Amino acid sequence: MDIFKQSFKMSIQNIKGNKMRSFLTMLGIVIGVAAVIGLITLVQGVSDQILSEFSGLGAGTISVNAIGTAMKSGLTNNDIETLKQIDGVSGISPTVSLNSTAVMNNEVYDKVTVEGKAVVYFLENDAIDSGRAFSEADMDGNSRVCIVDETFINKVLQGQQVIGNTVRIGGYEYLIVGISKADNSIFSQMSDSSDSDGTVLIPYKNALRMAGKENIQSFEVYIEEGYSTSDVENSLRTALDAIYNQADNSYSILNMESLMDTMDSIQGMMSTMLGGIASIALLVGGIGIMNMMLVSVTERTKEIGLRKALGAEPSRIQAQFLIESVVLSVIGGIIGVILGLLIAFIAAMALDSQFSISFSAIALGVGFSLAVGIIFGWAPARRASKLNPIDALRSE
Quick one: which of 11, 14, 36, 111 has the most CB atoms within 10 Å? Predict the structure, then answer.
């Protein structure tokens, strides 16, 4: 242990004695580790946020787009009731989306998004900020109630009373019964909604009539806890095939769980690829360390010869130079970790994404820098230990 301490102390003294050269030698390691940490941490943060958004959109939810065929467009209410009977289905929420107009105080707003929803949508999603959601009594197609978002309140109502007020949507008077929660998802941030006059939720049968449609073409299927999403998807496909008589391209199904698994796999592949690319800088840094240590051996030939003449064992000479190489590499690795995390944090703030420390990336960066120090320091240390003391003392 004393020999190790002495070798470590001498290594630190030699590094301090050649500050500029030591810094330039560590620079490759610093850049390599910072690149590994920064890229992997940033990719993981963005990926985690996207996966979280998808999970919020509906882990355990299957989205179906039933375009239908020339003979049968969409699905009837009876078809929806049939699908509800499938084992594992806790509910089905039809969705109807269209653009319409709103009239308030004789002012016309023509950039309003209208979405038709069912009661089950509100049972499965925490979508109401204040007021109430739709009830079963609102689902008969004759109840004209609506739920508005903050954008609609700011642009259309403009400070007027919200809940209990009425607004004309698509030519019909609707009573405002609730306010929906703000959508702060990454998908909402990516979309340009600056020109929108807001979103209004109305019962889906009202939305179908407003859109001039009779059948349902889009809906979400909610899965009961304990049931496999894949099994329910297979049962859905069987039922839809029967409804559309095996017609090709009559419907499409999006399984959020499968999509999340795919994205998780893509995240792993991207992290591995970015880590491999950034590791090239570590390789270059390792070559720099080897070059500096070889120069150091050449410059300290007489010192090595003197120490050997005084009885220093080759293993101790080798250990000193190897420790010096490892210390250089590890210091560069630590600086690189700090710099990489700082870069990832700044980038995450700029992109308005999550920042989460990737301990696996830190372990990879520090472990790689340690390995670089050992691998690229071995040859110079070996060369120093093999020097003949007489030849070393005679060298100029």
Answer: 36
Spatial contact of 219 and 80, defined as CB atoms under 8 Å apart: yes
pLDDT tens per residue, range 96-119:
999 999 999 889 998 999 999 999
**Helix/strand/coil (H, E, C) string of 17-31?**
HCHHHHHHHHHHHHH
pLDDT digits (tens, 9 = 90+) for 26-66: 777 788 788 778 877 777 777 777 666 655 555 568 889 98
Q: Which residues are CB-contacts of 395 (< 8 A; sequence separation ≥ 6)?
A: 301, 302, 305
Query: What is the sign, positive or negative, of the torsion defined by CA atoms of 103, 105, 108, 110?
Result: negative
Torsion of CA 110, 111, 117, 123, to 10 degrees: -130
**Helices 19-58 and 359-385, axial angle in degrees (round to 10):** 150
Tokens 């029967």 found at: 242
Q: What b/e readout covers 343-352, taking b as 16+ CB neighbours within 10 angstroms?
A: bbbebbeeee
